[in-house]
Amino acid sequence: PKFAYPHDNLGDVYRDQGRYDDAIAAYQQAINLDPKDAYPYNGLGDVYRVQGRYDDAIAAYIKAIELDSKYAYSKLSLGLVHALECQMNEANQLWLEGRQLLGEDVCDRLHYGLYSLALGESESGLALIQTLIRDGAISAAIKGALDDATILARCPMPPEGIEQVISLLQTALNETPSSK
Q1: 10-56 pLDDT, tens per residue?
Q2: Per-residue model confidence (pLDDT) at position 179
Q3: Are 147 and 76 in contact (CB under 8 A)?
Q4: For 21-34, b where at least 16 C-beta lie within 10 A, e where not — what string?
Q5: What span, in angstroms and rounded, lies between the C-alpha atoms of 51 and 94?
Q6: CA-to-CA distance for 86 and 174, rounded, in angstroms?
Q7: What gap in Å lies between CA 180 and CA 132, rounded to an integer?
Q8: Cα radius of gyration (the chain)
Q9: 84 CB contacts (<8 Å, ≥6 apart)?
Q10: 113-140 mean pLDDT
C-alpha cells in the first residue's frame, strides 16, 4: 500500500504476535510513507521497549510526542520506560501529563485507573478499574491495561496494589468473551 496507515496496523499485528523484526519493518515503512504520523513511532517505541532497547524506545516515543503532543499513550509509554530505568520523577510527570489527555472510552478509563494507581492513588485507581470491569469492559481494553500493569510490576519500584490489579485484570480477561 502507498498509505502509511495499513503499514502501521500491520506493525501492530506483528508486534502483538511477537514478530518484532517484521513489526519494526512495517512501522519504518509507515514512517517512510508519512514521517509526520506519530502512531508508527509509538508502535516502534513499544517494540523497542519489549526488546529492552530503552534508548531506542525513548527516542521513538519522544518523536511521537513531538509529532502529536496530545496523544496520551506516547507519554504513558515513555513514562513506563523511565520507570523501568528507576527514573521515577520523569515517569510520574509523564504519567500525569498522559493521564490528563485520556478520553472517556473504556480503554482510556482503564488506563486512567491504572496510572492513578501508579501515581500513588491506589484506592481510586483500583475502584475505577473494578467499576469498569463490573460494567463490562471489553477484552481488548482489559488486555491493553493488563499489558501496561505487567510492565509496571516489573519496575524496580512497582506501585502499591499492582499485583491485585494484575490479578483482577487477568480474571476479567479470562471471563470476558472476546466478542464483547
Answers
A1: 999 999 999 999 999 999 999 999 999 999 999 999 999 999 999 99
A2: 41
A3: no
A4: ebbbebbebbbebe
A5: 21
A6: 32
A7: 13
A8: 16
A9: 49, 54, 151, 154, 155, 156
A10: 93
Average pLDDT over residues 153-162: 94
Confidence of residue 140 (pLDDT cuts 50, 70, 90): confident
One-letter amino acid of 111: H
CA atoms within 13 A on the CB side of 152: 29
User: Is the CB of residue 107 less than 8 Å from the CB of residue 146?
Assistant: no
Question: How many alpha carbons lie under 13 Å from residue 37 in its C-beta half-sphere?
Answer: 19
